Amino acid sequence: LSPQPADAVGRIVPTPASTTPRDGAFSLPDTPTIQYEPGLESEARRLAAGLEAAVGPATTTTTADAPAIRLRRADVRHPEADTVDAEAYRLRIDADDGIEIVGTTAAGVFYGAQSLQAWLPVAAYGAGTGPVSVPAVRIADAPRFGYRGLHLDVSRNFQSADAVKRLLDVMAFYKLNTFHFHLTDDEGWRLAVGGLPALTEVGGRRGHTLDERTHLVPSYGSGPDPRPSVSRGSGWYTQAEYVDILRHARDRHIEVVPEIDMPGHARAALQGMKARTRRLLENGDTTAARRFRLHDPDDQSEYESVQGWDDNVVNVCQPSTYRFLAHVVDDLIALHERAGAPLRTVHVGGDEVPSGAWTASPICDNYIARTEGIEGPEDLFGAFFRRFRDTLATRGLTMGGWEEVGMTEAGGHRATTTTPNEDLVGKGVRPYVWSNIWGGGTEDRAYRLANAGFDVVMSQATNFYLDMAYSKHPREDGFYWAGFVDLDDPFAFVPFDLYKSAERTSMGQPIDPDSAFADHVRLADSARSNILGLQGQLWAETLRSVDRMEYMAVPRLLSLAERAWAPQPDWASLDDVDRLRARRDTAWRAFAHRLGRRELPRLSRRAPDWSYRLPPPGATVENDTLRANAALPGLPIRYTTDGTPPTPESPRYDGPVAVDPDAPVRLRTFDGRGRGSRTVVVRP
Question: Which of 43, 187, 259, 352 is catalytic?
C-alpha cells in the first residue's frame, strides 16, 4: 500500500455522492448552538451528543440568532438520479455563515449530522472543548441502496441489550439503516413472549441436563451451568429490554427486523413448548397443552440437520403451530407499537430444513390425505410458507426469509434448485440471498430471484459473512467454509455483476470470472430495482463475548457501509478483469488510508471501549534490515528485539531499520488509545 496524499483518501465513510471543498473554514465554537425545525428535536439532540467530545456541550433550540448549526427539512434530490430521495441530505459549511444541514426527511438530516461529525478533524475528538476549525465544503448525498443492513445472531451466543445498543450506535454512524435481529434458533430462544414463559426459561438456557426438562443441552462451549450470569449460552431479552432496543434503534433511524426461525432451526422453541405441554398435561389441562404444541408426539421421521440435530423441525401440519406463530407475531407487533417503532417485516428463516422431516408423522399423513394440491411430504415446505405468509399478510407485514423461501423445492424439503417459485412473486416475500460460494454452482441465485420479480437483499457469504475468519492465521478465529473474508472483501463486491467480485474459490484456487460463470444468469437491467440492498451477517457460533462480536464486526462493517451507501465506483463498470482489479486496488489503497488515518483513530476516541480489530503488521528481516507495513496505513507499528511484547512506548517503525540479524523481532500495530493488535514474530 503506497502512501497516499491526504486529499486523495477522503474524509467521510461511506463516501458521499458529491463533495465540493470551498475556500476557508468555519470556526465551530465551544458549546455551539444547534437550531432545528419542529420535528427534528431528536436529530438535534443526537448531534449535540456526538459533538460533545469535540467542542463541549451544545445548546439545542428552535429559535436562535446566528446559530452555529442549522437543521431543516426540504426536498433534496439524489445527486446522481436527480430525483427526490427520502434519505438524501445537503451539508453546507461556510466560513462566514456557519453550518447548515438540510434533509428530505428527519433521516436525511440525521445522516447529514453523521457526515458533519466525520468531517471534523479527528484530533478534535477527545479535546472536549472548542473552537474547532472546520474546512468549508458543499456535500450533496443520498444512498445507493435503500436497504443497508447488519444481521446479528444472539441465539448461538447471547449478547446483552447494552452490547446490542453499542452495535446500533456504530451502525448509525456509518449510515446502516436495518438491524436484522436473529432472536431464535436451535440453541436459544432470546425474547420473552407474553403467556409463554417456557420459551425463554427452557429454550433460553443451556447447561448440563439428562432430559432437557428445564433447559437445553450445552452448545458451542457454553458450559455446564445454565444461569445467564455464568453462561454465554443462556439469556434473553425481557419485553422491556426489547422495547428499549427498539427505541434506541428508532432514534437512530434503524429499522429492526426480528427473525423467528421456522420451520427448521427451531429446536429451542420445540423444547420450550414440549416443557409447557408436559406441565399442562400433568395438571390435567389437555386443551391448553395442545393449544401451542409444535411437535407430533407420534412422529417417527428420521433426519439430521446441517448442524447435527435430529429434532429441530416443527410440525407444519397441525393448527397449533400456526396459532403459536400468530401469538408470537401479535406479541411482536404490540412490542413494536409500544416502542413507537411499528413492525413492518418479520424474517422467518426458512433455511436448511433437512430431508426426511415429516415423512413419518401421522398428523402430516392425515393432512396430506385431506389437502388438495399437496401430494406428499415434499410439498409441505412450500405449504408452510404460504400459510405463514398469510398470517403475516393479514397483519400488513412483509415476510423475509433466507433465499430458500423464494425457491422451488427439489430433492428434499429445502431448496436445492436455482428455480424461483414464481407463485410467490408479488406476494410480500423478500428473499435474503446468502449462497454464492465461488465454484459452488449457486452464485446466480440472487439474479434468478430478482429477474423473476422478487425484492432481494444481497447477503452473500463470500463477502458479507462477518463470522468468517479474516485470514487463515490460527489466531484469527472464525469459520472458512465460504472462504476468508478480510476487510477488503465487502469493499470489492459488485452488486449488479457479482461475478466480478470472484477471485478465488473457498479453498483458495484462482477463478477467471469470464470462464467460470459463462453459463450463469446475469441480472437484467429491468431487475436492478429489485435489488433492495446489502446486508452483513454476524453469526455467533464463535462470538463468546462482546469483545469477539465487536472484533468480527469492525472494521469490516465500514467496508459494507461503503458499498451499500456510496455510488457505484468507476472500476465496477469495467469488463476487463485485469483492469478492473488494478483500478479497484487503487481505490482500496485510498480507502485503507482513510480507515487507518481517520476512522479507527476517531472511533478509538469516540468509543474508547469498542474492541475493534487492529490488523497485525506484515514484516520481513533480510540480513540486518527490518521492513514492515500495515494493512491500514497510518496505524503506528511498534517493535522490540529483546523478546518482550511491544507496547505503545516501544520504538516506532518509521522506515527500514537495522536490527540484530540473530534475534527475533516482535511487532504490533496500535490505535490511539494504546490498544494493540496480535503480536507478529519475525525471524531472520
Answer: 352
Query: Which residues of the chain have a pLDDT value below 50?
Result: 410-416
| Non-local CB neighbours of 453 within 8 Å, separated by 6+ positions | 422, 425, 426, 527, 530
Query: Residue 522: what pLDDT?
Result: 96
pLDDT given for residue 81 in this prediction: 83
Distance CA 202, CA 189 (A): 9
Chain-centroid distance of CA 569 in Å reads 22
CB neighbours of residue 300 within 10 Å: 9
The three cell numbers of residue 208 are 448440563
- What are the grid coordinates assigned to 494, written together? 459488485
- Residue 70, CA distances (Å) to 38, 79, 111, 553, 649 in order: 12, 21, 14, 33, 43
pLDDT value for 6: 72
Mean pLDDT (the chain) is: 94
CB atoms near residue 169 (< 10 Å): 16
DSSP one-letter string for 221-290: T--S---TTT-TT---B-HHHHHHHHHHHHTTT-EEEEEEEESSS-HHHHHHHHHHHHHHHHTT-HHHHH
- Whole-number Å distance between alpha carbons of 316 and 381: 8
- Give residue-wise pLDDT tens across range 365-419: 999 999 998 999 999 998 999 999 999 999 999 999 999 899 875 333 344 467 8
Query: Considering the entire predicted model, what is its pTM?
Result: 0.97
Neighbours of 309 (CB within 10 A): 19
Residue 220 CB neighbour total at 10 angstroms? 16
CA angle 79, 464, 313 (to 5 degrees): 125
Buried b (16+ CB within 10 A) or exposed e, 262-283: bbbbbbbbbbbbbbbbeebeee
What's residue 147's pLDDT? 98
pLDDT of residue 444: 93
Does 476 participate in catalysis according to the annotation? no
**Please, which residues bridge with residue 667 across strands?**
639, 680
Question: Do residues 71 and 113 lie in contact, with contact meaning Cβ atoms separated by under 8 Å?
Answer: yes
In DSSP terms, 342 is beta-bridged to: none
Q: Give the closest residue to 678 by CA, choosing from 625, 618, 599, 628.
A: 618
